[in-house]
Automatic annotation (TrEMBL):
Record family assignment: Belongs to the ABC transporter superfamily.
Highest taxon above the source species: Bacteria
Assigned keywords, A-Z: ATP-binding, Nucleotide-binding, Transport
Lineage, highest ranks first: Bacteria, Bacillati, Actinomycetota, Actinomycetes, Streptosporangiales
Location of the ABC transporter domain: 2-227
Protein name: ATP-binding cassette domain-containing protein
Native source organism of the sequence: Microtetraspora glauca
SUPFAM superfamilies, per database record: P-loop containing nucleoside triphosphate hydrolases
Keyword ATP-binding set for record: yes
PANTHER family, per the entry: ABC TRANSPORTER, ATP-BINDING PROTEIN
Molecular-function GO terms, alphabetical: ATP binding
SMART domains in the record: AAA
Length: 304
């Protein structure tokens, strides 16, 4: 479990993280989303004791990171895959981390196997591809078999098989009851991986909700209705405050209410239905709506 209370970081007069209060639950993959510069890495760095909060607290399993005796056995993290001594082999890098945390040699071999680096364990970290470096970073995070795992952009540089492997790994870590906190800009991937989402913009919390709720609240999530009495039903739905768009003689797209409510209203109105289905927004669409006013470093959309 990770708990943030009023977590704030200022650099001069710039507020990188602004009063974040959150609880990240075990058994869940929580996706951490936000535009460039939103404060995701700074938040993760404060949880790991690498940056000092200006105010507020970040606790892992109820205590600040610096009070944890064997940190790698409590929280594993991948922040910057390239932050490894370039002259050290993969195995030597992991052995050095293991020694400081009371972790066995055999565990090093085990995680090398898990991340698919056993065959190149003797290779120097400095000559690894970005994807292999990511795998080494993930191995380091897994080393202490921790209950809490944090990954900053873990699929960066991975090929499609690697991306899928990370997705399956995150899911299985959560299924084992661990707390998994992962940042990414790849919305399609997050939609497949995360149960819960935390969205921030300009350091502030925008949303802390289950994935399904984030998608449901999008204005692009709608209910599609086909009925031979679409006109009558439109009047009825509008009277109930529901957004209605006619899309052809017999079809309606309704927004602002769930499928159950629309079905009930149709039933009450005695209107026969030939289709009642949900058209879900993608996470990408929901995310864009949520963060539209928080994008600092965006480019203007090209008009075609
Ligand atoms: N050491 C630092 N000194 C000054 N400003 C910093 C420092 N580290 C981060 N910042 C600023 O804090 C803000 C948040 O940065 P951060 O790297 O946490 O964002 P992010 O959400 O991880 O972005 P990205 O998606 O681009 O990785 C940015 O405006 C950044 O310029």
């Amino acid at each position: 479990m990770i708990s943030l209370k009023g977590l704030t970081k200022r650099y001069g007069d710039r507020v990188a993280v602004d009063d974040l209060t959150l609880e990240l639950k075990p058994g869940t993959v929580t996706g951490f989303l936000g535009p460039n510069g939103a404060g995701k890495s700074t938040t993760m760095r404060m949880i790991l004791g690498l940056d000092r909060p200006t105010s507020g607290t970040a606790l892992v399993g109820g205590v600040p990171y610096h009070e944890i005796r064997y940190p790698l056995r409590t929280v594993g993290a991948l922040l910057d895959a390239r932050a490894v001594h370039p002259g050290r082999s993969c195995r030597a890098h992991l052995l050095a981390l293991a020694r400081g945390n009371g972790i066995t040699r055999s565990r090093v071999e085990e995680v090398l196997e898990t991340v698919g680096l056993a065959g190149v364990a003797g290779r120097r970290a400095g000559v690894l591809s970005l994807g292999m470096s990511q795998r080494l970073g993930i191995a380091a995070a897994l080393l202490g078999d921790p209950d809490v795992l944090m990954f900053d952009e873990p699929v960066n540089g991975l090929d499609p098989d690697g991306v899928r492997w990370v997705r399956d790994l995150m899911r299985s870590l959560a299924e084992q009851g661990r707390t998994v906190f992962v940042s990414s800009h790849l919305m399609s991937e997050m939609q497949l991986t995360a149960d819960h989402l935390v969205v921030i913009g300009k350091g502030r919390l925008i949303m802390d909700a289950p994935l399904a709720a984030v998608i449901a609240q999008s204005s692009l999530t709608a209910v599609v209705v086909r009925s031979p009495h679409a006109g009558d039903l439109s009047v009825r739905l509008r009277a109930a405050g529901i957004g209605v768009e006619r899309v052809g003689e017999n079809a309606i797209v309704a927004t602002g209410a769930g499928i159950e409510r629309i079905g009930d209203l149709a039933y009450e109105a005695g209107v026969r239905l030939h289709e009642l289905s949900t058209r879900e927004a993608s996470l990408e669409q929901a995310y864009q709506e949520l963060t539209a006013s928080s994008v600092e470093y965006g480019v203007q959309r090209a008009s075609v």
